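Before surveying the methods themselves, let us examine one representative protein, written as a sequence plus integers encoding its fold.
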Amino acid sequence: MARKSRGPKKAAKSTAKPAGAGRLRELIGEIIDAQTRGDQESSAAAVKALEKLEASGSPQVRQRAVEARMAASNSHPQDRSRLLNELAARLGN
């Protein structure tokens, strides 16, 4: 007796982090540190690296890199810090 098909199997959720997520988190940390110290050159260099990551990362990393770059350009220091920390926390999960 043949078994009845119950439909297509659902794919398991992937727990692997997207390529470039570690580098993105590292860059966000660098931006936060540089802006805390008032080091505009280091902050600008990290933002440049974010722009490169936007072009080469996985789709999720590219989206987060755009968000990080936009947050880094925020003119209010407390908002900028909060947004960047929230992004880093989301990448950690």
Notes: The radius of gyration is 18 Å.
